Fold:
Amino acid sequence: MTDLTRHERRKLDTRRRLLEAARQVIAARGYEATGVLDITEAADVSKGTFYLHFKDKEDLTRVLIHEGFEELRQRVDPYLTANRTLGQIKEAIRAVFHYSAENRDLFRLMLGHQASAELNLMAINYYAEFVEHLLRQEGTAGRTSALQSELVAQFVAGAGVRLGLWWIEDDHGLSPDEMADFLFQFLTEGMSNVISVAGLDTGTL
Amino acid sequence: MTDLTRHERRKLDTRRRLLEAARQVIAARGYEATGVLDITEAADVSKGTFYLHFKDKEDLTRVLIHEGFEELRQRVDPYLTANRTLGQIKEAIRAVFHYSAENRDLFRLMLGHQASAELNLMAINYYAEFVEHLLRQEGTAGRTSALQSELVAQFVAGAGVRLGLWWIEDDHGLSPDEMADFLFQFLTEGMSNVISVAGLDTGTL
Amino acid sequence: MTDLTRHERRKLDTRRRLLEAARQVIAARGYEATGVLDITEAADVSKGTFYLHFKDKEDLTRVLIHEGFEELRQRVDPYLTANRTLGQIKEAIRAVFHYSAENRDLFRLMLGHQASAELNLMAINYYAEFVEHLLRQEGTAGRTSALQSELVAQFVAGAGVRLGLWWIEDDHGLSPDEMADFLFQFLTEGMSNVISVAGLDTGTL
Amino acid sequence: MTDLTRHERRKLDTRRRLLEAARQVIAARGYEATGVLDITEAADVSKGTFYLHFKDKEDLTRVLIHEGFEELRQRVDPYLTANRTLGQIKEAIRAVFHYSAENRDLFRLMLGHQASAELNLMAINYYAEFVEHLLRQEGTAGRTSALQSELVAQFVAGAGVRLGLWWIEDDHGLSPDEMADFLFQFLTEGMSNVISVAGLDTGTL
DNA sequence: AATGAATGAGGGTTCATTCAT
DNA sequence: GATGAATGAACCCTCATTCAT
Structure:
């Protein structure tokens, strides 16, 4: 039983409406192009009310991005047991693509570099951390150096984000699972297949 | 040779000073946070002069990014013969990392998603096209589908850009060649080594 | 009666102050020479407030001119019954001169051609329409052609405006009624008296 | 024999081209909306050259208006002998309408209140003076007071200018002579005819 | 005399933020 | 808590004018 007074419920409701409105309008117009007025109008709330709930536009966006990653993690965590297998990771990647398909606006905002420089940095770090979380195996500390795992995380995050953004803009007829499997294959096997198919001479390596 | 009047040389000189100033100041403060006034002050030129040379801030930035990719391509092209080998591609990737180390500001501007949404899109397309140029092999048309090569290009571009940006922010003691080789290894072989080292159980795949 | 919240009254008050300030400052400096800043400073209001109430300078001026003609018509209408006499018209003209004496600034703005080309055109049309309203007699439709009454309106408007502007710049010791009677006499009798006094030979006509 | 060096001829030529260009472009766009650049481009002359010949835009426009009135006076003077008759004045008025038809652009600039407040004042004074010149009869000094003749001049100027501007915008099928005769009739006889036709009751005067 | 690159004051306008109600 | 009128700093951009060539 959430024992909230009507006041408190009303307040939370307003806050939520601002978040939803911002999510939509920012996705539609871009972060910089969106004014506080655009958000409050979409939320059917007065301009002043905004500042009752958020310090400024960046503050609200931070919450939006944070919530996005929280949700993403909740979607992915069920697949990740302590002793995880490659098969689990594959499922996790599929879950990420499903999530991005269902939350295109938010995904774009989280990872499309539309927000301010600071927020983008925050988001990218969130994602790299998320990837490390994905790949991290308990009890293997020290087997791979911190540097190496960060390199891997950046690599995976970069490739994954780019493919994800490319795909939600136009799916080219590919399903979430196809995208995930494609990414998974490249990550595990590299592109030697593709490259050899392309006819590159590997003899001089 | 240079059949320019002094007038014309003077004008080009001013234009160049604006470009250089913009490059530095945008890299330092970010695209959106940079006003035209910041640029002209850094160039020690009056505000009106800016509009004599460029339509607006975006116009100038477009030139900056375009020039960056032109220069990058010139650095890379010598390594790419018609019948290219994997070894050549490795050299090309090394050249890219050397370039990014020598032009950190510009590289950040080109690929750091600091500019406007439109310019970022332009830059990302430039880069994907650049990667396709890198991987394209003559005489293999049809062997790989257009869709597949676009997927590969997005994958490579995403991973490469992210590693590059991560590295120029803090090199973590890694040389350009080490970075390039790391990227090259991952691209060709995938991360099976790393992953197996991490102790992931591959049995269930 | 006035079912306005204090908020609304406050807003209308600010609007009115802007209109009054604009009226004075435009009359003093001219339309083109007056900046929005001049108006807001005279109204003791911030620059941004202006755009809360008016789209731009032209918008405000349009309101000013419109209000002026509304007021003028209200001053004049009591004298004009359906079956009007020349005597009524004389009284109406006197009312116009009284009005112009009491509202020199606004009169200059309305008819002094200081505003933008578009506004001047609007004002001149207002005035010609006003003159037609003054001279129009019910039940005489068809007796004078539309063309002829337009010619008359232009003639009367031109002469009246010019005399009015001349007079409010320097009254030369003439009272409003004297001016009105002078204009009325010329309009009704023409200038044959004056001309003959001037010694022009009328024999050759 | 105009003994001008090529230099001098060239200079005068440039000056004339600027004047012609200004006349056209100001007529087309209006005085305020016309920039110096618009004029120099139309004259196919560099921007700096403008300031070699004129102090500023207002200076050039002054010359334009001055020339216009000079030409107008030359057109009208032949009709005006020392002992002038009403018939001569009628011819003079006809000449004015012919002139305005042939020089619509310039006429609009001279009397259409498009220029700056100062220039408009200058023009209106030119015209009032022109009208006084038209109506002045030698040897009658003192018969009419200075004040009275100024009143008449303002009346005639106002009515004439308004009719002229109305007519050059759309001639409504009326010839210059018809316009002139119409104006002449109203000036001499007043509008009693028109008014009585309109059915106004004159009994109460 | 002619050029046109450079100047910089000043214009209009937007918008994040405050605060009295 | 909610409102929205008011604020004013900051922005982009234009354009009359200067001056070295």
